[in-house]
Amino acid sequence: MNGKLSFCLVLLSWLLVSCSGMFPDIVSEEPLEGHTFSSAQVRQILIDQPFLLSGDYFLRRNPEKEATNLFQIFLGAGEKAKAEASEQEKRLAKLEEAVFRKKESPAPSSVAVAEYRIKVGFFIDYQNIDIRDGEVFLKVAKEITQAKGAIFVDHRDIQDVLSRTDCIARKDLGCMSKVVGIYPGARFLHLVEILEVPKAGKARARVSIVDTGLNYRYPSMEVEMPINNDKDRQEFMSIIASKLVEISLEKKNTMPWFCKAFSQDEKNRWFISAGSSSGIKEGDVLTIVSGGKIVNAPTGVPAGWIPGNSKGAVKVERIVNPELAIVTLESGAPPDLEDFLIPKGK
User: Fold this and answer.
1) Phi, psi of 228, rounded to the nearest 5 degrees
2) pTM of structure
3) Per-residue pLDDT at 345
4) What is the distance between the alpha carbons of residues 2 and 36, in angstroms, rounded to a whole number?
5) Distance CA 120, CA 311 (A)
6) Are both 80 and 10 inside the same structural domain?
7) Domain range for residue 108?
């Protein structure tokens, strides 16, 4: 009510000034003493954007609550909405300029950026899935994973590691995720729980998706599709595998690429679950990071990851094979099973 009264007083002052033969003030950003709205705001309502003239506009506004920048939401910056909008415009202008320059002047080919490949694992629940369907799906998943630039981790490799634990017996997906993230080092674990692919009829599948780095389980993916022939069966499996790999590649940048140390020898060297196929090279230095904090989006899904404290660094001494390397302690405290080994600069 006070806001409406203030607005009417400002409007009345305009009319009085106009009748006196003077030009009314329609540009001042600061409200007059005792008034809630400035002359510029009244002009915006009456002239620039008359559709804003509604009771809602007169509600007391809170610029901090109006801010929509996710970075502010996560870090609680609490900047004013107007200043944020101005800064955002500047950033967008710089981005547009950078994109234009990039199109006009391509970056020199001599500048190389290390690209580390993630491992994507597939585990089949053969208690509920026909072994023939499972084997066909794994073959399709391997071809698609490799074609999309990721590293395929087979069911058998995961089964071999998990068989030495009680994770499967307890049906503990969190336990499975933790173990598989250490060795064989899969960043994403796709647990195929249902895979029904009849020769004719309705095919159905359900897959649980776990990010082993965040130890976070995304909502299960469920797919149904009518099947009429073998071509449809193959297409159904391809659709599922493609979607799972795409999700992995889309979510992988939530946190930096990492690997973990899973064993130590008598010479105080550590074996890591990454080799040449992952992009690791001799001489690479990996920072040892103890844990981290997930930053959730407003929807509750992980949007980012803040690394924990750095406790030291290791250096890649030798590449054993495409999936295995040896590192030595470069500085600080040695790594343990829980630590993330992140390439410097990532």
Assistant:
1) -120, -25
2) 0.68
3) 77
4) 8
5) 28
6) no
7) 69-112
